[in-house]
Specification:
heterodimer; A: TIM Barrel; 3-stranded parallel beta sheet; 10 strands; globular; B: alpha/beta; 8-stranded parallel beta barrel; two-stranded antiparallel ribbon; 15 helices; 40% helix; 13% strand
Chain lengths: 258, 366
């Protein structure tokens, strides 16, 4: 069992848990939670980063060892995604960007077509692009072609905590796409995260389930363990799932002289 | 297509007979549902549902935290002018109220902006009285150009405009539109809007939709509670929000629930909206429209605002002045009296103590 480190944009990651900064009861709790999570990549909505006010600037609450993954929350089109990404880079947030192109405020479902357009532009500009998508094989292949650094399919609508409702579709991406697959959105419990990792996802991004827990710090630890356990289980190669028991008196035993 | 068409289909519902037929079983069935229909929403506004406020509150709280987190966005209003050509029976800016009118010069706009930004506020609602003559689109646009240097998000709450005018303001840096229908009942609407262009019910009713079409990112609507039976008004406003949310998926739709406040003049509310009623409306909205923003102003008392926090509120104003020029210097006549006069710093401390993160910046001028 040789564990290869996850590498994205040239950065080698020990932890396969990506975290977020939204929905927390305070910025102090964000800091404590991130420290406890063992995570190394954290996403934050650029729309909420208050660069002018150090006390309110969420970046000042993110531990130094984290790679910042600004996201384009609020962008409705590829054009708005690109503008927000450029602002993030110019403001010193690094060159990673999580694309959220969402023109549906009811379910917050990503617009895959706008996402492909934005990915192409930003990848050419040298961004490490992590697009958030509805799981779709053809879309993921296009993203691969236009230079995405990973693909982030949703497990269920953002914030829904419903778990891996799109499991079959994500499985296809895991099997067919060379890029890292990071399951983003919908993961409501550590067991969901473990399930995604057991299935072969390269990482998971969890925000709502941690931020809105009664004890976000403990929940972050729980997710850390679940992601590690799921990954180890995947590498260990779980036995095949059968619908029937293995009979102790096999019907074909006579062939082996039993 | 207009919300008016949908409104016409429901305006003559016999509300009393509907409410009379609502049973405990109906309310409990609605509370167990994941997705609510219009009829379910009306069940939650019934007198019987008032006995289920705690159950509704638990569910509303859970939905709010799930969709918006433990977060409250803070904003402040900026009154550019209080000239008004309308005669609205319930409003302090009524053309017949004889007080000296004010309008900020562009220099004063910058002064006010600095005073508000110094409190930490980044999200602004710009208001004028309704007078195209004194506050033309060009004046509002010039003010917006100054304000974009100070604020990350700017909404307007002014007279209803044409789509092209809204678009012009969006290009100048406005990202949100607030416009209240005041009352959905056409007869009462006509009665309380005695003279002035505001008498045009349809032009106002369709204004939020024109805002969506013009590219506003956020549209905030609401009834002025107290003008008609609050159950009906809350129902129509909820349907209006639902209509906009379904038709303009890329616009964030929110509702405000202003209650009539004392002001100069002598108008008395037609319907008393007490605290349990306000709570019932907020909870019914959250259960019917889980993604809906709900905004609360300083019209309400500090104590009530604190208690309403976990029930579904997503946005609050803080340290508001409803005077023209009220931030840089205190003066003039205000539109209505405010009840919560705590400072931004005090509101921030309170939110944190209650387990809510105050958010000052929720958009970025792009």
């Amino acid at each position: 069992m040789i564990e290869e480190k996850l590498v994205i944009g040239g950065v080698k990651l020990e932890s396969r848990l990506f975290t977020g900064t939204g929905k927390f009861p305070s910025k102090e709790v964000i800091r404590e939670t991130l420290e406890a999570s063992n995570s190394q990549v954290v996403t934050m909505a650029l729309r909420r980063v208050d660069f002018d006010n150090p006390e309110e600037n969420v970046i000042n609450y993110i531990p130094d060892n984290f790679t910042l993954l600004p996201n384009t929350s609020g962008a409705r089109t590829a054009e708005e995604v690109v503008r927000i990404a450029r602002i993030a880079k110019a403001a010193g947030c690094g060159n990673w960007i999580k694309i959220e192109a969402i023109s549906d405020n009811k379910y917050l479902m990503p617009d895959n077509q706008e996402t492909i357009k934005a990915t192409e532009i930003l990848a050419k500009e040298g961004f490490v692009v992590l697009p958030y998508i509805s799981p779709d094989l053809m879309v993921a292949k296009r993203l691969e072609e236009v230079g995405a650094a990973a693909v982030m399919p949703l497990g269920a609508p953002i914030g829904s905590n419903r778990g891996l409702k799109t499991k079959e579709l994500i499985k296809i991406l895991i099997d067919e796409i060379e890029l890292p697959i990071i399951v983003d959105a919908g993961i409501g419990k550590p067991s969901h995260a473990a399930e995604a990792m057991e299935m072969g996802a390269d990482a998971v991004l969890v925000n709502t389930a941690i931020a809105t827990a009664n004890d976000p710090v403990k929940m972050a630890q729980a997710f850390d363990y679940a992601v590690q356990a799921g990954r180890i289980a995947y590498l260990a190669g779980p036995g095949a799932v059968k619908d029937y028991a293995s009979a102790s008196s096999p019907l074909t035993g006579f062939l082996k002289g039993e | 297509m207009s919300f008016y068409k949908e409104y016409k289909q429901v305006k003559d519902i016999d509300f009393n007979s509907f409410f009379d037929q609502v049973t405990k079983y109906d309310v409990e069935k609605v509370l167990a549902k994941d997705r609510l229909k219009r009829e379910d929403f009306l069940v939650l506004l019934s007198p019987l549902a008032n006995h289920y406020l705690e159950e509704m509150a638990q569910k509303a709280h859970q939905l709010t935290v799930q969709n918006f987190g433990k977060v409250i966005c803070l904003y402040a209003p900026l009154y550019l002018a209080n000239y008004c050509v309308n005669q609205c029976a319930y409003c302090g800016f009524n053309v017949k109220n004889g007080f000296k009118r004010d309008k900020l010069t562009l220099n004063q706009v910058a002064q006010e902006a600095k005073a508000i930004v110094n409190k930490g506020i980044k999200d602004l609602v710009v208001l004028t009285g309704e007078s195209r003559k004194h506050s033309p689109v060009s004046y509002i646009k010039d003010s917006i150009k100054i304000l974009t240097e100070y604020f990350s998000s700017i909404a307007i709450e002014v007279y209803p405009m044409e789509t092209e005018e809204y678009r012009e303001l969006v290009e100048a840096g406005v990202d949100g539109l607030t416009i209240y229908q005041e009352t959905y009942d056409e007869a009462i609407y006509d009665q309380v809007h005695i003279t002035g262009p505001k008498k045009n019910y349809r032009f106002r009713l369709d204004a939020p939709e024109r805002g969506c079409q013009a590219g506003m990112r956020r549209v905030n609507i609401g009834p002025l509670l107290g003008l008609d039976d609050w159950r009906k008004e809350a129902f129509f406003a909820g349907l209006h929000a639902d209509y906009l949310q379904n038709k303009y998926l890329d616009t964030e739709v929110s509702l405000s629930l202003p209650r009539l406040r004392p002001h100069i003049g002598s108008f008395q509310p037609n319907s008393i909206v007490d605290d349990p009623a306000l709570v019932q409306i907020i909870l019914a909205y959250r259960l019917f429209l889980p993604r809906l923003g709900i905004s609360l102003s300083t019209r309400e008392s500090d104590q009530l605002r604190d208690n309403l926090l976990p029930l579904g509120i997503t946005k609050m104003s803080a340290e508001s002045s409803t005077f023209v020029g009220g931030y840089a210097e205190n003066r003039g006549v205000n539109q209505f009296d405010i009840s919560d006069d705590r400072t931004v710093a005090e509101v921030k401390e309170l939110l944190l103590a209650r387990g809510y993160q105050p958010v000052f910046k929720d958009w970025q001028q792009i």
